[in-house]
Amino acid sequence: MATSVEATRKLTVKIKRYNPEIDDQPHWEQYQIEAEGHDRVLDVIQQVKWEKDETLGLRRSCAHGVCGSDAMRINGTNGLACKILVKNLRSDTLTLEPILGLPVIKDLIVDMKPFFDHYKAVMPFLINDEPAPTTERLQSPEERARFDDSTKCILCACCTTACPPFWGDQKYVGPAAIVNAHRFIFDSRDRGAAERLEILNDAEGVWRCRTVFNCTTACPRDIPVTQTISEVKRALITGDLEMPEVVTIGG
């Protein structure tokens, strides 16, 4: 059965613009766009660039929510432009800004180097100097499940740039770096947990987290970011890498 075409919406698109070659300060520019309900915010932005102002700067790649390159603030909340549909916008005004806490290169493009420097600092790779087995290093489904959520990170920076402590202190490694450390700290095949925990046991490590939950809300991959940070804190306090028991009240 053929499906009906989503209703066309007339949008007022407000974009925070900044070109360091000609601008002293960021400023807002406004465009009128017609979009179908099934269009994505990314489609709207590209329509602005192709039909209204080709000088608009943005970053995108896969357009399928996998690469994370089109992260931005959409109506005041971090998200991926390729995952948010026009029909789900609550207003006919669409406000777009670069993610916060990172230097703006141009318009919606930020310098990701500080973010990736923090990511690299937690050694986000498998460490195991034991003699290699004749096959792959095996682990049980239960061992894999221990860190499965944190493998879903696409390094979009939505969580880190939604974090108020990071806005005020860019030395803080940030939620994304901790999530990627978690992925290896709790991997039964890895032998570098103690070294990573030492890196994170710092005023600019996990202890800078204030459990605001902005990171969890912002994650486009539904990673329980605040929970993973709490698990790293618990490992530092107890030295225990096992999954804590869930206590059911009244059960």
Characterization of this structure:
β3 and β4 form a beta hairpin. The strands form two sheets. The chain has a five-stranded mixed beta sheet, covered by helices on one side. Strands 6-7 form a two-stranded antiparallel sheet. The relative contact order is 0.12. The protein is of the alpha+beta class.
State the gist of this model.
The chain is of the alpha+beta class and 251 residues long.
- Return the structural class: alpha+beta
**Proportion in β-strands:** 15-25%
The number of helices is 8
Q: pLDDT average, as an integer? A: 94
For the terminal residues, how far apart are their CA atoms?
47 Å
State the major sheet: 5 strands, mixed
Q: Which of globular, elongated, flat, extended, rod-shaped describes the shape?
A: elongated
Helix fraction bin:
25-40%
CA gyration radius, whole angstroms: 21 Å
Question: What is the string of SSEs from the N terminus onward?
Answer: EEHEEEEEHHHHHHH
Strand order of the largest sheet: 2-1-5-3-4
Identify low-pLDDT runs: 246-251
Give short descriptive properties of this protein:
251 residues; alpha+beta; 8 helices; 7 strands
Layout: helices, strands, pairs:
Blueprint: E1 8-17, E2 27-36, H1 41-52, E3 71-74, E4 77-80, E5 93-97, E6 104-106, E7 109-110, H2 113-121, H3 141-145, H4 164-168, H5 175-185, H6 193-200, H7 214-218, H8 225-238
Parallel strand pairs: 1-5
Antiparallel strand pairs: 1-2, 3-4, 3-5, 6-7
Helix pairs in contact: 2-5, 5-6, 5-8
